[in-house]
Amino acid sequence: MKKLICCLLALILAVGFTMPAFAAQTTARPYERVFIIGVDGAGRFFKDANTPNFDRIFADGAVDYTARAEIITTSAQNWGAILTGVSYSMHGLDNGILGSVERSSETQFPTIFTYARRAFPNAELASIVNWDPINYGLIENDINVNKQHPGDDEAVTQAICDYFDAGNQPTLFFTQLDSVDHVGHELGSTSPEYIAQIETIDGYLGRIYEAAQRNGLLDNALFIVVADHGHTRSGGHGGLTMRETNVTLAVSGKGVVKGSSLDRIARNRDVAAIALYALGIDRPDYMTSRLPANLFDGVEGEARPIQNDWKDGILARLSWILTLITKPF
Ligand SMILES: [Zn+2]
């Protein structure tokens, strides 16, 4: 077994480290707006639920149920990676920090909101979330992002619909819905209640999408659904089981490869690179977020620039091997 692990590790490291360095950045602006809908704790399990809205929204889009979450599979680590485009080992954010340390754009690894603000000084940027630490300790507080945390997922959904109906036209929009995570903790990812909660979220997703649509916000937009992590069978997360580490990453918009499941190494962290690309914002070189293959027509996928973050490169491979060998289910 030890020998097998060594061989696997050597092979994976060799393949990973000999991939060409990426250099793709863009200055065009392929999309007017980007919407990122974060579903906390939903993991890969959209695929096991009856989700007519999700299916409709992404019928012409790309859906990956095996995108990899950040290690450790906890909320702040993952929302942090999704919005900053760097690993937990670089951003260092955990749930405690998000709830207690207010963040400014002077930070070393700012979120994509700071990059959007620098590129578009007058643009509307918004984050309407259930879990307020995202708006306090992650999305920077000095860049004029319209931040709201109206309450539970129903209240968040209604606030988003009202916000769109009031004529707001965000260039970058983020929301995080939290109820699936609550049910996951309580009853686990094998419970019918957990799947039912994803189906409830699907209803919210439909309302948010329709509100954006009726206000003309989707005419030239990228619409993304992403999860931060999943849940174990009995509930909880933070570990390496596939139920925790495999997450949904779905993208729709013109020019997205229809029916694609992205490439095999997509990570939820790649949302940062996708959003910056969509808005025509140059991605900073330090990021380890990259464009997956088979996402946009005519746009090549990129190798993960692991030279920026060796620790993450090794950790990601080791953790995946451990997942495959010890805790596949
Ligand atoms: Zn979470």
Distance between the termini: 19 Å
In terms of DSSP E residues, the strand content is 5-15%
What's the level 1 CATH class? Alpha Beta
Mean pLDDT: 91
Shape: globular
| Fourth-level CATH superfamily | Alkaline Phosphatase, subunit A
- The string of secondary-structure elements, in order, is HEHEHHHHEHEHEHHEHEHH
Low-confidence stretches: 4-26
Q: Helical segment tally?
A: 13
Largest sheet geometry: 7 strands, mixed
- Approximately how much helix is present in the residues? 25-40%
Structural class: alpha/beta
Bound molecules: zinc ion
Please state how the strands of the largest beta sheet are arranged side by side.
2-7-6-1-5-3-4
Tell me about this structure:
With 329 residues, the chain is of the alpha/beta class. It has one domain (24-300): Alkaline Phosphatase, subunit A (3-Layer(aba) Sandwich). Helices cover 40% and strands 13% of the residues. The chain has 13 helices and 7 strands. The chain has helices at residues 2-17, 52-57, 75-84, 88-91, 95-100, 112-119, 133-137, 153-165, 179-187, 192-214, 242-245, 270-278, 310-326, and strands at 33-39, 62-68, 125-129, 146-148, 172-177, 221-227, 246-252. A 7-stranded mixed beta sheet has the order 2-7-6-1-5-3-4, with helices on both faces. Strand 3 (125-129), helix 7 and strand 4 form a beta-alpha-beta unit. Helix 9 (179-187) runs antiparallel to helix 10. The longest helix has 23 residues, at 192-214. The two termini are 19 Å apart. Mean pLDDT is 91; it is low at 4-26. Bound molecules: zinc ion (ZN). The site of zinc ion (ZN) has 6 residues, from loops. Zinc ion (ZN) is lined by residues 40-41, 75, 181, 228-229.
